[in-house]
Amino acid sequence: MTDISALDRYAYEHGHDPLSWAEYITGSLIDVHLTVIEARLDDPGAFPGYSIEPTIQALASRIVGALLDAGWTRPEITP
After folding, report:
1. Rg of the Cα trace of the chain?
2. Residue 66 and residue 22 in contact, taking contact as beta carbons nearer than 8 Å
3. Which residues, 6+ apart, have CB-to-CB distance to 71 below 8 Å?
4. Which residues contact 36 (CB under 8 A, 6 or more apart)?
5. What's the predicted TM-score (pTM) here?
6. For the packed helices 6-13 and 18-42, what is the interaxial angle rounded to 10 degrees?
7. pLDDT digits (tens, 9 = 90+) for 40-79
8. Which residues contact 5 (CB under 8 A, 6 or more apart)?
9. What secondary structure letter does DSSP report for 38?
10. pLDDT in tens, 13-43
11. What's CA 11's distance to the chain center, in Å?
């Protein structure tokens, strides 16, 4: 966990453990994603500052990033 964001580092330094922080970040990402999707159904121009298209793939990538920042490692694949 040497390459983490400043926000992650701040959270860890102030008592959050990596897993609970990853859960918080993941919940926030899902909440934002759903909010943007819902708002864009009514107004396609809603949230213009949300520059990355809110696709499932982008959301999944951000969630995996939060887990990796928390110290998760991918499972070993055995042939």
Report:
1. 15
2. yes
3. 1, 18, 19
4. 46, 47, 50, 54
5. 0.67
6. 130
7. 899 988 888 876 666 788 888 888 888 888 888 877 777 7
8. 69
9. H
10. 888 888 888 888 889 888 988 898 899 899 9
11. 15
